[in-house]
Amino acid sequence: MLGEKTACFLCSGLLCAAIAAGCNHQKVANDYRAQVKAVDELIAAMKEEEFASRDDYVRRLEMLKSQLLAEKERGEERQMAFERMRTENEGLARELEFLKKHVRVEVASIEIPFYSGGKDTDRDGKDDYIEAAVCPRDADGDILKAIGTCRFELYRRSFIGMGEIGRLLMRWDFSYEQVNDAWVDRLFRGYDFVLRWDGNPPPVEDVVLRAVFTTLDGESHVARKKVKLRL
Q1: How far, CA to CA in Å, does 134 sit from each of 20, 116, 138?
Q2: How does 7-36 read in b/e, with b if 16+ C-beta sit within 10 Å?
Q3: Do 53 and 129 belong together in one domain?
Q4: Residue 173 belongs to a domain with what CATH number?
Q5: pLDDT score for 48
Q6: What is the pLDDT of residue 46?
Q7: What SS3 state is found at 45?
Q8: Which among 88, 174, 86, 81 has a CA at the least distance from the CA of 133?
């Protein structure tokens, strides 16, 4: 029957075009597999159905054509959206590589400046906290602002043997955001932290302050400073 062949040819052509529009995306491909099955079932039903008239057959065929065209348009829209997302992601990847190559700062070392130490705010002769500064430096010795976390450890100073670090007394940890907020660029350039006592003050006056600055890529830099507290 000519109508049957025409229907099959039309359906196959439109279906192939619809599948081609979404073949690059796995989800779209899965959607079209379901559409293929539905269209095959519809064509099989049309082959077995007896139509009252040629006009009735044409109407059913036009309905099927409209369904396939609508699905083809949806597939093309999905494909266009997918291509836009891929283009945007490729642009972001290029920007990230540019930043890594041209904007990245390399921390070569850190230091704890000489003025870091105990602070007596109420003037009672006893330190209330430690003001600790950290200065990251590049390979040329210049102070730079770098993204990283910072940890301070306070140790009892040891006078036995060659080592100078004894028992750990206190510890303070600062996140990326806290480190960024601690940046100052006035008379002093670097990160300035307030290390308050964890409950009671340290039990000894002679201590060693140890700073560990860890950059975004996981590289850690360490500095130490001997501190004489007033307790």
Answers
A1: 60, 9, 13
A2: beeebeebbeebbebbeebeebeebbeebe
A3: no
A4: 2.60.40.10
A5: 60
A6: 63
A7: helix
A8: 174
Phi, psi of 9 (to 5 degrees): -65, -45
The span from the CA of 36 to the CA of 68, in Å, is 10
In DSSP terms, 172 is beta-bridged to 152
183, 145 contact by CB (below 8 A): yes
User: Same domain for 165 and 193?
Assistant: yes
What's the alpha-carbon Rg for the chain, to the nearest Å?
36
Beta strands in 23-68 (DSSP E): none
Note whether 184 and 207 are within 8 A (CB).
no
Q: What gap in Å lies between CA 118 and CA 130, rounded to an integer?
A: 4
Q: How far apart are CA 56 and CA 54, in angstroms?
A: 5
pTM of the model: 0.55
Overall number of domains in the chain: 2
Residue 114: domain span: 109-228
| 43 CA to centre of own chain | 50
Answer with the residue of higher pLDDT: 6 or 91.
91
